[in-house]
Amino acid sequence: MPRIALLVGLLLALATPAFAQDYPTKPVRIVVPYPAGGPTDLVARKLGEELQSLWGEPVIAENRAGANGNIAAQLVAKAHGDGYTLLLHASSMVINPLLYKSVGYDVFKDFTPISLVFDYKLIVVAHPSFAPNSIKELVAAAKAKPGSISFASAGGVGAPTHLSVEMFKQMAGIDLLHVPYAGGAPAVNDLLGGHVQLMFNNPSQSLQYIKAGKLKALATTGSKRMPQAPELPTVAELGYPGYDVGTWYALWGPAGMPSAVTEKIANAVQSIVKKPEFKKLLFSQGLNVLGSTPAELAAFAKAEQERWGKVIRAAHIKLD
């Protein structure tokens, strides 16, 4: 029996490179945890088009929204690890297990990391009537009247637009009033109407209103200035070194994918994100291309879960 097992293992090892060379031989689906029409859906469809051009097989984006991305993640976690079902998920994939008692998956056991794809940083925006015009003035006002300044979050408790403010509150030693919203549109509408004063929001929902004078920008949240708005300082350069937050997106597959197939997909993604037209499309949406090896994504995801775990525990945030 041991000899038979050894022989089977050897045959499988020899077959894997050949399988990867032929992959794909049928349509590939990229599951998207958000509704059609959003930036993630847009990138997934463009990524699918580029992969189809490379491989000659259809690559189809499939929207499975709900439960803050958990439904899509559960679906892919249960799929066969042959590389024909993939998942383009946000950083909430590693954050959700810190918020919920059960998400129905284990990031580091049920998935194969493939590649980082893109990210975006946030813009600290306020209603024009909001008195502070800088991060320094915002902190001073918050310390003068703790809990009196309201901020909106898109996606509710535990969303990136919420946690980004929680991290800033902890670093600055201030208290702000959280007003959660189910989505970006109602949050921005209330900010535009002056019903809330502040928001750490994504660029695609902020830049147009800043240019129109309907919102004012105080800073951005990356380690470097935002290419789409280089005139805005970062929170980090304004006295909070190490503050670097936003939302990142990565491509994953089910656990057990052959390493050769994983590498083939990762290499394809890394070549696509370097294409000028792909960069241009993402830039127009306020997004930044990334790309990584599977090992780099695995290490990055673990570091991100540890980083946000500290913030969540310090803020005593739980969803169930």
CATH topology of the largest domain: D-Maltodextrin-Binding Protein, domain 2
Looking at the overall shape, the CATH architecture of the largest domain is 3-Layer(aba) Sandwich
Shape: globular
What's the quaternary structure here?
single chain
Helix content: 40-55%
Can you give a write-up of this model?
Helix content is 42%, strand content 19%. With 320 residues, it is an alpha/beta fold. The protein has two domains: 26-119 and 246-315, D-Maltodextrin-Binding Protein, domain 2; 123-238, D-Maltodextrin-Binding Protein, domain 2, CATH 3.40.190. It has a six-stranded mixed beta sheet, sandwiched between helices. It has a five-stranded mixed beta sheet with strand order 7-6-8-5-9. Helix 1 runs parallel beside helix 9. The model has no long low-confidence stretch (mean pLDDT 93).
Keywords:
320 residues, alpha/beta, D-Maltodextrin-Binding Protein, domain 2, 2 domains, six-stranded mixed sheet, five-stranded mixed sheet, globular
Can I get a quick summary?
By secondary structure, the chain is an alpha/beta fold.
